[in-house]
Amino acid sequence: MTIQETHAPVLASAYQRSVADYWNREKNPVNLRLGEVDGIYHHHYGIGDADWSVLEGPEETRDERITAELHRLECAQADLLLSHLGPIGPDDHLLDSGSGRGGSSLVANQRFGCHVDGVSISETQVAFANEQAGKHGVADKVRFHLKNMLDTGFETGRFRAIWNNESTMYVDLSQLFPEYARMLSHGGRYVTITGCYNDAYGLPSRAVSEINAHYICDIHPRSSYFKEMAKNRLVPAAVLDLTEATIPYWELRAQSPLATGIEKAFLTAYKDGSFQYLLIAADRV
């Protein structure tokens, strides 16, 4: 299949320009140092029980042990997301929407042998990710593009699966899901792992508002995902509440030299119930 390039501007609003500028400038050690462990650079958080023994042992290697453990937890998160994409073959095409520095796309190719396109509005991220694809020897099957996930220019029905990993809070879901429904083949799968605020709590809590301000994003209420999916022929096949599973990652990160200061807000919001960490898998019908 060929890729249709869009002539629409990649950055369609002042807000999108501010987000692109943020990620073009971002060089956060918590993203870079973890990727240096094995050359897979993720831009998301972790799940699973932490190995707290990393806090023990020789002081001179403590930071290295914590960093490796945080990376293990974030890799477990990516593996869980990819395990919900359904049957994928080497000839299938997948879309990593909001692909960051490209880690999940590389893991998907390693796992399935498939074609992966990643999209980001950050020129810096796209260049970095394409460089990584070259270093891993998969540039013929894994490619990253400077594109807006709301208007990608990819052809209708191209993708067997599409995912967002902690990137939906940067876009309007009522614009996002029609584009995904268009690009997915019939019976294709969409998966997201995302933080969302709990509708039962009411409006976003103070801690959720702190997270929004930190990342210049707009965290959606949980109900919006299901409402907008239903409008666009995306039928949930699995919903997992990963809130408890992600807390150990944040507790360990809070004790890491890579902590950014936002850890307390995440832990407060998760523990008071105002914020949830969900995996949603949905089929295109």
UniProtKB/TrEMBL annotation:
Domain Methyltransferase: 95-188
Keyword Nucleotide-binding: no
Keyword Transferase: yes
UniProt GO BP: methylation
Keywords: Methyltransferase, Transferase
Gene Ontology molecular function: magnesium ion binding; S-adenosyl-L-methionine binding; S-adenosylmethionine-dependent methyltransferase activity
The protein, known as: Methyltransferase domain-containing protein
